[in-house]
Each structure stands twice: as C-alpha cells, then as structure tokens.
C-alpha cells in the first residue's frame, strides 16, 4: 500500500530542549498507528508535526498525497453553546465545504454517531468527544490524527469511540493516535510506536501490552562498554544480571527498560531481545527482531 506521510530524521527543539530527536517514521494508507510513551515523551509534539501544525527544527516531513487532507482531534475539546449540527456547519464553512455537501455529510454523520442535537453545554464528555471526531471527519480526511481520544470517557463511550474509529479505518483513512489505553491499542491499532525522551525506542506489532511499572523485563544486549554496565548496576530499577559482560542479559524493572535500551543504543551497543518476565495478563514478549538497533530511527 502507498505511503501517506513520512518523516525523515526529524528533530524538534523548543529553545535548547530537544522534544523529538532523529524521528524516521511513515504511515501507509488505511493503517492505524498507536503512539505510546510516558508524560513528556513527545507524543503530542509528534502529532503536531504530522498534522503540519508545527515545523520540524531539522529533517523532512513528506506528504505522499497531494493535497493531503488531515483531520485533527485535539485532546481538549471545549463545549460551546451551539448544537452539534450548528457547530459542524460553521466548521464546514471555515473548511471551505460547499453548503449542500456539508449538510449531506453532517446528516450522515449525525445518523451514524447517534447524537442528540441539543446544546453542547449540556453534553456529556462522550458526546463532546463524538463532535470532536465529527469535526475532524467532515472533509473525509486521508489522515486522522487523535490526541488521547479516550481520555476521560466512561466505558460505554470508550467502546463507542472504538467502533467509530474502526469504521473510519475500514473506509480507508489512515490513523495516528497518541494513546494510553490497551483497549484502543488492541482493538484498533495495526502498529505501535513507543517514544521515550523524544526518541523512538520501539516499533512493532500492537499486541505488546503497555508495561506495568512493577513488571520485570529481561534485556539481552551486545557490545556494551564496561562503564555502562557499572552505571546500569547503580540504577534504581536494576534487579540482577543473568549474564554480565560485553554481551549479556540483565533483568530490570519495566519502568526503566526504555531508558536502559536507549542508553545501550546511544552508546553504540545493540539490543538483541526484550522479554517481559512477570506477565499478569498473558502479554507476549517482544520479538528480538523488533527491538534491534535498526528499529531506532
Ligand atoms: N511549545 C513548547 N515549548 C516548550 N516546550 C515544549 C513545548 N511543547 C512541548 N514541550 C516540551 O516537550 C516535551 C514533550 O512534550 P509533549 O507534549 O509532546 O509530550 P507528551 O508525550 O504528549 O506528554 P503528555 O503525555 O504528558 O501529554 C515536554 O517536555 C514538553 O514540556
């Protein structure tokens, strides 16, 4: 399938602060990628760059569809005094949609989204999030970007959003979503990209469950300098060596696993394999292939 959008060696700095570093990443038509990572990892910044809302400080952003229609679903969506249909008509006008086309799209979406057309001031968080998604889908985007789309929603609204996103995907729209919820990852995403401190530290299939802080991870590595092994022993999440040496395996808390891998890769070493040892809900280990040095952008 054809690529929709591509980032090549993208950096983003805010003053001296590097929010994103050396991001090479692309998305194909109809694909859905989940972006995960801790607070401040760079997820929103990455979405803003993909959306074209901010420019990279270095590297390139290449759209492979011209013109590329993008829908953006921000994390915070304010309630207004408008009814959803009124609000959407305004957005459609701003987006330059013809009145008749806008009316047709809005009618169709109101039926699918099953929203009461009453003032948004009286809407629940779930209803507002539906309007948020509808404004992004008005122009039938090639690419839909969502920042934490399930944040603050109750279970029923989460399930509805999952259904709507799957339907959007089925219609051929590529999706990128910054996300915490395993539900959304396992039921919509085809791929998972994990960021840590502005770098991609993992790219792979979505069945990888987000690690719990207390889980133990086994990291197998090669070409790691002796001083780095000593530093690792001092880290608070270090548990034990399985094999210590230039090539070896270490057991650490999941909470520091991303940072350890990043350190190893940045110092010229390689990650040969990653495995979760304490599995509380049947998650699979990460295949060694997906964590090799080549996976780091
Ligand atoms: N406009 C800005 N000016 C200065 N620093 C910024 C700006 N935007 C983001 N940052 C910084 O860049 C880093 C990444 O922020 P970003 O919002 O992308 O992270 P995130 O992964 O989305 O985090 P969270 O899950 O907490 O929303 C943070 O340290 C943040 O403080």
UniProtKB/TrEMBL annotation:
Top-level taxon in the UniProt lineage: Bacteria
InterPro entries named among the record's database cross-references: AAA+_ATPase (IPR003593), ABC_transporter-like_ATP-bd (IPR003439), ABC_Transporter_VariousFunc (IPR051782), P-loop_NTPase (IPR027417)
Membrane spanning residue stretches: none
Lineage, highest ranks first: Bacteria, Bacillati, Bacillota, Bacilli, Bacillales
Protein name per UniProt: ATP-binding cassette domain-containing protein
Residue ranges occupied by any ABC transporter domain in the UniProt entry: 5-222
MF GO annotations: ATP binding
SMART domains cross-referenced by the UniProt entry: AAA (SM00382)
Keyword Transmembrane carried by entry: no
Keywords in alphabetical order: ATP-binding, Nucleotide-binding, Transport
PANTHER family according to UniProt: ABC TRANSPORTER ATP-BINDING PROTEIN ALBC-RELATED
